[in-house]
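Study this chain:
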Amino acid sequence: MRIVFSIIFIALIAALIACYRNVHRSEKAIASSVGLLICALLPPLIGNLIIIASSEETLSTIGYYIYFLGMDAVMFALLRFTLDYCAISGTKHRRFCVIAYMLLGIDVIQYAVNLFTKHAFGTEPIEVSGAIYYRLKPYLGQSFHRIVDYGILAAVIIIFIIKTIKSPKINSERYSVILAVMIITTVWETAYIFSRAPIDRAMIGFGVFGLLVYYLALFYRPLRLLDSMLANMASEIPEALFFFDAGGQCIWANPSGIRLVNAQEDNYEPVANNLREMFGDYMQTVSSQHEVSVGEQTRSYVLEMHNVTDERQRPVGSFLSVRDNTLEQETLQQEIYKATHDSLTALYNRAGYDLLLSNLDLKTTCLLLIDADNFKAVNDTHGHETGDKVLQKIAEAIRHNFRAEDCACRIGGDEFVVFMVHTGDKQNDLIVSRIDRINDELANAGDGLPPVSVSAGIAHGDEGVEPVQLFERADRALYETKNRGKCGYTFYIENSKAN
């Protein structure tokens, strides 16, 4: 039995030494207090190992001195660790610490005096496992030692009880684990004292306590509680969230995600296929925008896929967020429409004209520059309100006499541009007929508006033409139309004019 316990104590000492070496790599503020406590636990463990292994009185007595003085060091370090770990400060606590440290100092002195007075403890030989073992004989000084150490330990336990009760659950979990180990170790040590058992097995508890402090203070994260908190938070997020394992199988989805793919809670098998039907190969995307028909509506979604790796950068899974941004897209489209369209005529405005120029293939585009004839007279004679209605009539005539793919703009007061796409010189007769129809409609005063006419300058794009150059050609052609009496059209031809 003595060999078994010796091996256990050697293993605990080696483990604590390894932890102490690793403590210095931590950048946490609590690391110094943890290191001090682990270092303080080594002497009582070494002392107990000497007592267990020794069959000689002097060596056993030395082991007891190392053990008891080491326990004083443990109480000193434990009190400091407790104040740091539980973030406790204040005058009352400082006074208590001063008193505790003074009592520990007195205890150290009385053990030094014991070398001469023998008032603290002695030893007596007994047989354990077939060999002499020197058991402790406690005297008055030993009672003082136990009162001091047990008093400090009781104060520490009370502090941890208060912190466990009053702290948020995410913190109380780590306090409660340390508290439980301290209570178990205290009960274990008390049982040893009253049982007069030859080997202090309770020191195994102190060694385990040191290992737990090392782990809980520097590395522990309450993963189960964090998982629960994160799941609750994710459940409240309006975005749909889907978590996948390394094989792409859905392992969890929040309520928004379940509703999106019409799945059932706790049955995530259909999720991957349903997502694929809605968004295609979503696993290959990092961030993408998707339009999905839902009944008679079209909804817009933003997909973001995030890969998750372990500490060795090995893929362990992924999660997908799906956000419905239909309203954002509708608002954006409305803002874009307002920015690029004329509020009076609903045609493209100057900004829309510039946008069209940057996106059209000009070499297959025909630009018509259309200007209302004598429009100033309409405003002067009939007023601006009537003038606005005439402009709306012109815009409507342009709109329904050209194709849906053609783009009409109002770039000035009574000046309009039409981009006819995918056209060439062979379509001139078609263009002429449309301008004639527009003038016929504008000449009809059946709607109560004064008759007006328009003049047009027409320029076909060609290879290498610049936007400004194309507009200038149409403007020259329009100038020729105005010079010839208005209410007509002119096609721009290089070095010549024709109508």
User: Anything to note?
Assistant: The longest strand covers residues 297-309. The mean pLDDT is 88.
